[in-house]
Design brief:
The protein has about 675 residues and is an alpha/beta fold. About 30% of the residues lie in helices and about 25% in strands. Keywords: ATP-binding, Ligase, Nucleotide-binding.
Amino acid sequence: MTEEVQQRVLWQPSQEMQERSNLKKFMTWLREEKGLSFENYNELWKWSVDEKEDFWVAIWDYFEIKGERKDDIVLSGEAMPDMTWFPNATLNYAEHIFRKEDPDKEAIIYQSETRSESALTWKELRQNTASIAAYLKSIGIKPGDRVVSYSSNIHETITAFLACASIGAVWSSCAPEFGVKSVIDRFKQIEPKVMFAVDGYQYNGKQYDRLENIRQIQEELPTLEQTIIIPYLREDVQEAVPESHSTIIWNQILKESREATLTFEQLPFNHPLWILYSSGTTGKPKGIVHGHGGILLEHLKFHGLQNDLNESDRFFWYTTTGWMMWNIVVSGLLTGTTIVLYDGNPGYPNYETLWKFAESSKMTVFGASASLLMASSKEGVKPKETYDLSNLRAIGSTGSPLPDAGFDWVYEEVKEDVWLYSTSGGTDICSGFLGGSPLLPVYAGEIQARALGVAVKSFNDAGDEIIDDIGELVITEPMPSMPIYFWNDENGERYRNSYFDHYPGIWRHGDFLQITSRGTGIIFGRSDATINRGGIRMGTSEIYSALDRVPEIADSLILDIPISSEQSMMPLFLVLKDGGQITDELKTRIKQTIRQNCSPRHIPNEIIEVDDLPKTLNGKKIEVPIKKILMGVPLEDAINIGSLLNPESIDYFLEFKESLGVRSH
């Protein structure tokens, strides 16, 4: 990325926006209540990490957490990961969801390929949650019991989660497009007692029945005592489900428990709220456990301050229930905002679908993965010419770095005065390390700021902090939403090996990061997938960003494969748009694009067309496992096939390895 691009300002918050932002109100509160004054965001960020205990107590007080701290112990322990936040406090995450409810206001607006746009009010959400919670308690579910979901991004799934959280049950979710083995790999290790599941779903116009999958999952989970079927694909699901004492239909519970009252179990701050999972590309997915209190504080800060959400917002993020962004969407309710759900293929029948939904639902915040925004761009979608987006004030992007071309498309084709904030974080903390700020400008290709309370830095190989250069993304101070532990990791060895094996006591995330002297951030892809040519290291995202300029390319994967101690080969694998083919002219254009936007050293040795690129169940392309395969690592050691959305795509790379004459070792 050139200096010229880095310094190009695309948007500035108006003085009015800054003054009415939650972040400005928080700064005013700090001055009036705590005697703390900060001139700008970066000063506030520095205080939030230097005085981390004071900062998180301020978040507790500012957002008026309903719970008991009981003593003055905010953080115990000597060094990460052996540190505990608010060890003696009690509260309940779900109780805070309903604090700002307005009975007749929409809590959830939803639409899918099978459901037309509709809404669930706060009154309905509370009653449905109470009914499900009462049923769970009636069958003996207690705090700490695991409840799993094999359900779609629909309001029933959110209701089920809130019911679990209200009684202290531990939630875990897989999207229904996950195959049986992938679900078992995740759920079997946590020994659930109850499963919520949709009978099926529709995607890209095609219907997928899931009743047989459910039956197979039930057989593989010996601890499962009850399955609750949510009718989604068919109205008459009762007739399709074999009679069983261990299976009940969702509607039946709502009908029989409609007089229930919602109550909230007061739980330890670090009581498990949900279990998320690592991608599982090189082994069984690790169960990442987050606590009620840590997620509550982090998400109130993330939504309330970084994303500036409030009761007047309609907050949308395109996600499935298998991605941590679903959890982020649910937490939007903490601010009293209306959350907006879409279930289905965002490109069906075309990439206009979500922009049309943005207009009809009056979205104020439109969130999506960077790849989805780039797909809209490449398909030639021009939302501002077709749709009334007058309500849209912000667009969020995450999942992978948004290239500068994506920033340009948003401002040229979506809305000129929209706040575009990019976020980078992870399932590991279920939040962002870097993200938006309503007080700061937007620079092309950059993330606005380091998130408050997140001591994110860039380290060089010697472990020294660097500015305006690319290094390892590290976190040097603990955060409340760091995992409380990994499931079935009694001595914490897997947890330590995942983040703390490189820099003792410091979290190494595995991304390349540049912090600019202005305090913005630029992510350069995974550090373990680095392209190193002639001693010049480059993150793969830089090359992908350059390739986004080539309209024929739908997707790409570039690898740097060592051949000897002095040589390596760098193949570029391309998925072309329908009807495209690799010609000498296209190859020349690709090489020129990489030469001009990256460096001459990073021009690929070969440019190869493939039908598909391997992706995780969350839709992220994988680099390191493919690199390992091409270096001769046996398939079973390089990748867990069950973790892939499209396992058949691996076949090409196995053949390619053979063509290189590489033997497995």
